């Protein structure tokens, strides 16, 4: 129910309100206190960060400093095959025939939240709301920033940093989302 509500905000190109996002995330984190975990994209506001801090001890916050133009180009180049969930990117993983799924020959679609005008709105909202979060964690001494435009160039630095925090995690384990 909360996920459906969250999707309605995403489809409109809006960020999910703090109370909804916090409920979603804290519910997912219940029972993970015995494990190391990495969150991607949460918290995005100071209110979310404060709510998270009340429930969990945060050891490290990683900031991927990627120019908005790079993000916009990648997202707006993303197309999907709805039936299978296959994802194509016109820049680095295009379909063999533009606009057509390689396997079924069916048309590809662009999600509403990947359309240029929606991406621009989301990036502007992200910028306004997230800079204070970075400052919040910077002041706590928990923030580590990595700058770049290419995953294969940024990832080795992030992985080396994570090895200092979690030396027993293998590269294979680190690359497997859970």
TrEMBL record:
InterPro entries registered for this protein in UniProt: Adenylat/UMP-CMP_kin (IPR000850), Adenylat_kinase_CS (IPR033690), Adenylate_kinase_lid-dom (IPR007862), ADK_active_lid_dom_sf (IPR036193), P-loop_NTPase (IPR027417)
Q: Where is the Adenylate kinase active site lid domain?
A: 78-113
- In Pfam terms, one family for this protein is ADK_lid
Annotated GO molecular function terms are: AMP kinase activity; ATP binding
Keywords recorded for this protein, A-Z: Kinase, Nucleotide-binding, Transferase
Catalytic activity annotation: GTP + AMP = GDP + ADP
Keyword Nucleotide-binding: yes or no? yes
Q: Which HAMAP family has this protein been placed in? A: Adenylate_kinase_Adk
Which family, according to the similarity comment?
Answer: Belongs to the adenylate kinase family.
Q: What is the protein's name according to its record?
A: Adenylate kinase 3
